[in-house]
Predict the structure.
Amino acid sequence: MAEFRHTPVLLNEAMGMLKVMPGRIYVDGTVGGGGFSKEILRRSAPSGFLIGIDRDEDAVKNVQIELEKEFDKERFRLFYSNFSKIDSIIKESGFKDIDGIVLDLGMSSIQLEGGRGFGFREEGELDMRMDKEERLTAYEVVNNYPEKTLADIIWKYGDERHARKIAKKIAESRKNKRIETPAELSAIIKKAVFKGYGKLRIDPSTKTFMALRIFVNKEYDSLMEFLGKLENVLNTGGIVAIISFHSGEDRIVKNFFKNKLGFKSLSKKPVLPSIEELRSNPRSRSAKLRALCHV
């Protein structure tokens, strides 16, 4: 089993927003590499309790092992599930309401580098499923969806202005040979839009890969379902901190925070990574943290 090594983005800022302290109950809705879970357990010692959730079964298994090395097993419980099911998970844990929730909507390093098709240079399967029990894969979308549908997915979920060019090039390429690996797909994307990205540091495949990942894993649906349940699972004074890495996700969170009665935003603008964090962890460049308190 692979060891999870992942540096959480905006860790201290999120913990500051949550005001983690002993005796309270917290949820890490996206356990990933365990960075937030560990910090919550440390800061809430000796009597705080953590409910951890992840739709990636490998993440849950690995973090369970890591947490048991440092913390009392009676202080946490992990679930292989989707954070959109937070209400039923809290009930199963034996609690009615909780005091704080953190969601890190980014990918963990182990997922990006773990051979599941998320990385641009991978030679493995073009998969992109976070939960391997789900049926739809990126391979199915890329090789079988109509060109127009593919363009719509890339535009809607990736904000990719070259969506039509990319979809057209994919459709042309798959007539000769099915697109088997992330590396093959990335090469096709670069042929379609290389000139448009020539002077930018971002990889031309970034937005298309993100769009496919979001679509395959129904990430927007999960986020909206989760947000709709906050009022019923947070104590009065309870706080939710959400870190997004994509403009579409941030729009969903921002609009909810702006329009939801009974909640108060803890900052007028999203909290961004510091210069020091940007230097040490380039993946943090698109991160935005928003926090909301149930009043």
Summary: Residues 11-110+220-294 form a domain with the Rossmann fold fold (CATH 3.40.50.150).
